[in-house]
Structures are given as structure tokens and as C-alpha cells.
Amino acid sequence: MEERKYIIFQLGEQKYGMNLSYVNGIEQDYHIIPVPNAPEGIRGIINLRGLVVPVYSLRERFGMDVRVDNPAKSMLITMSSNIMLGYEVDAVLGIEEVAPEDISKMPFVASNEETSFMEQVLCVKEGIIIAINVNKVLSDDMEEVLNQMVEEHQ
């Protein structure tokens, strides 16, 4: 099997990975427009070259403080569950090629309903990185709300 590529990013002191095949782009210069009464985790929307893209805070999803003033912050533009979505992260660290034998399932003891989107553990030269499945971060209800939000702002 061939190696898989993951984009490595940082939230707080922890590094995470996301399969590069789900990432459409990385934005660093963006302006988030707040949406009143937005669902939990939604920071707002951005205009990405004419497309309205909701922005989701992984920091909030992970129970971290939402950091506002971070000059290294970036946004991973993904196609998550058929929704173009921006994931705001503290920093993008690079792209890592990972051999299949260095990819493991998340240990059973660390898996539960709240962490079901954290499916894999990557063993890379820097250590262990938890890989996130972008198609499982959002609940079905959240997906529906986001689809409505995008339609209303098109």
C-alpha cells in the first residue's frame, strides 16, 4: 500500500492530523462574519471567492478556550459530509506522508461517542498524532443546520 498524506495542525499544545484528500485549501487571511444565534461551534461564515463557507471552531469542539488573537491561526477548507466547511486551527505545521503500518485505529479505551471523529493514531517522527475524520466531526443535526445557513446566505 502507498503512503497517505495528512495535513498536520496544532490546537493548543497538541498536534492533530487530517487526511489531505479532504482538504481543499488553507486560508490564512480571512475575515469571519459572525452569524447571530449560530449553533455551538460555528464561529460564523466567510466569503471564499464568492462561496459562503461556514467556519467551525475545533478549539470549541475540543473544549478549549476560543483564541481570538493568534497571528498564526489558519483555516482548513474541507468538504465535510457534502458541506464546504472551514475548520479554524491554531497553526498548520505541514504535510506528513504516513505509511500504512504507521496508522492505527484509536485505542478502544480512548473511543466514545464524543470522540468518534478521532479515528486513527499516526506514528510519525515527531511522535503520535491523532487523525480526525472530517465526515464525523459534525452531528447529523449540525449538518442540516449548516446546509440551511449556507442556503440562506447564498
List keywords for this structure.
single chain, 154 residues, mainly beta, 5-stranded mixed sheet, 2 helices
Q: Could you characterize the architecture of this molecule?
A:
- The longest helix is centred in the C-terminal third of the chain and has 13 residues, at 140-152.
- The mean pLDDT is 83.
- The protein is globular.
- With 154 residues, it is mainly beta.
- A hairpin with a 2-residue loop joins strand 6 (74-80) and strand 7.
- It has a six-stranded mixed sheet, with no helix packed on it. The protein has a five-stranded mixed sheet with strand order 3-6-7-5-4.
- It has helices at 58-61, 140-152; strands spanning 4-11, 14-19, 23-27, 42-48, 51-57, 74-80, 83-89, 91-98, 103-105, 118-124, 127-132.
Please outline what is shown here.
This protein is mostly beta strands and about 150 residues long.
* Regions with little confidence, pLDDT below 50 for 5+ residues: none
Structure class: mainly beta
Regarding quaternary structure, how should these chains be classified? single chain
**Helix fraction bin:** 10-25%
CA-based shape = globular
Number of helices: 2
Strand order of the largest sheet: 8-1-2-11-10-9
Q: Could you state the order of secondary-structure elements as H and E?
A: EEEEEHEEEEEEH
Q: Could you tell me the number of beta strands? A: 11
| Mean pLDDT, all residues | 83
Distance between the termini: 42 Å
Q: How would you summarize the topology of this molecule?
A:
Elements: E1 4-11, E2 14-19, E3 23-27, E4 42-48, E5 51-57, H1 58-61, E6 74-80, E7 83-89, E8 91-98, E9 103-105, E10 118-124, E11 127-132, H2 140-152
Parallel strand pairs: 2-11, 5-7
Antiparallel strand pairs: 1-2, 1-8, 3-6, 4-5, 6-7, 9-10, 10-11
